[in-house]
Specification:
- With 375 residues, the chain is of the alpha+beta class.
- The chain has a domain of 145 residues: 2-Layer Sandwich (TATA-Binding Protein), CATH 3.30.310.
- Helices cover 62% and strands 11% of the residues.
- Strand 3 and strand 4 form a beta hairpin.
- Helix 5 packs antiparallel against helix 6.
- The longest helix is centred in the middle third of the chain and has 59 residues.
- It is elongated and about 105 Å long.
């Protein structure tokens, strides 16, 4: 870029942790609690205090995420319970707030036990329901048919029923309709089993189909977990980008610049901004911010026509370079480190001429914003 600067940017760990906790708690961006303490300790050079604050923030952030996972599991099992019409007790989801990490961890441990019991109860309910349907569909009942067979002892019919219920209880309660139907289809073959050997063959097929159903269910769980992780990473990246944009906007506004979007909203994915000043009738700075880099270039509203114009250009570039360094210091206080990788000194090249005039587009947008506020 002509007459510009490029700098790599990175967020401090305290900022990343704070933004993550804010998202979990449904709060706006910013720093609070141990995240703010860690940044303050960094600025004051208190390494031990910073390490302690970061460790506590990381522990609480992990505990919050684990609590969110349990809340999601409660929601999933609640849906399964409703689908089966089962009367199974489930723990209430936790309303996340200012609980310390120790309290969150203890709740997760207790909730895990309750959810494991609920999942087993739902599997037992499903097994009993399917078993009853299969035996009821066999006329007098499969147990009676097997009891009358000359090839099996009288008690085997009831044994088959108990065995089927026990095998069916291994089916995960959140198995999909197709998986459940495949298992039930095999189990229904018991209605035509005339001997204990045939019944055992059918039960073995049921076991195999349950294994396949559970494998598929676990694969779907893992796929959903990966989708959730990707969505979480995208949300975190957006929160970090928003924090950087807001911090840069605040830094330059404090230095006397007017910060506008690149004729779009500041939430635009390209992160383009335009910096102007009242004393700069012919100059502006175009800036683009992404997740890892900020690039800025000073531009002119019209071509330079004289040596005096070029002298003013160099003065404006020098002023901008000083402002950029001051902004870097402010951003460092907000936990945003910037390492300049490329810089063009003032007056080395002619300033490029912008294709968009701030006098037309920019001022029109400002008037529109003022009208909107007045309505």
């Amino acid at each position: 870029m002509s007459s510009g600067v490029e700098a790599d940017i990175a967020l401090d760990a305290a900022v990343v942790l704070s933004l993550g906790m804010n998202r979990v708690l449904g709060r706006a961006g910013g720093l609070a609690g141990r995240g703010a303490e860690a940044l303050a300790a960094l600025a004051e050079g208190r390494a031990e205090a910073r390490a302690a604050a970061l460790a506590e923030a990381a522990t609480r952030e992990r505990a919050l995420r684990e609590a969110v996972e349990r809340n999601a599991r409660i929601a999933a099992l609640t849906e399964t319970r409703g689908r089966f019409g089962a009367h199974v007790r489930l723990p209430a989801p936790l309303d996340l707030g200012e609980q310390p990490a120790e309290e969150l961890t203890a709740w997760c441990a207790a909730t895990d036990r309750a959810l494991d019991e609920a999942e087993r109860a739902l599997s037992d309910h499903l097994a009993a329901e399917v078993t009853a349907q299969i035996f009821a569909a066999s006329g007098e009942g499969l147990a009676t048919d097997l009891e009358r067979s000359e090839d099996v002892p009288r008690a085997d019919g009831e044994d088959v029923r108990r065995t089927l219920a026990r095998v069916m209880a291994r089916l995960l309660p959140d198995a999909g309709p197709a998986e459940r139907e495949a298992v039930a289809e095999a189990a229904r073959l018991l209605a035509s089993a005339a001997t204990a050997g045939e019944a055992e063959g059918v039960l073995q097929e049921v076991r195999l189909r349950i294994q396949d159903a559970n494998r598929r269910t676990r694969e779907l769980r893992e796929a959903e977990r990966l989708r959730a992780a990707e969505a979480d990473a995208a949300a975190q990246a957006e929160a970090e980008r928003r924090y950087v944009l807001d911090s840069i906007t605040a830094a330059f506004e404090d230095l006397g610049y007017e910060v506008e979007s690149g004729f779009e909203t500041l939430t635009a994915s390209d992160g383009t901004m335009v910096l102007t000043k009242g004393a700069w009738p012919d100059h502006s700075v175009r800036m683009r911010v992404d997740a890892a880099q900020v690039r800025a270039s000073m531009t002119r509203e019209r071509p330079a026509e004289s040596e005096d114009d070029r002298r003013v250009d160099a003065e404006r570039e020098a002023e901008w370079c000083a402002a950029f360094e001051a902004a870097r210091a402010r951003l460092a206080e907000a936990g945003i480190r910037s390492d300049v990788g490329w810089r063009l000194d003032p007056g080395v090249r002619e300033l490029p001429v912008t294709t968009e005039s701030r006098h037309t587009r920019g001022r029109a947008e400002r008037r529109e914003r003022h009208r909107s506020r007045d309505q």
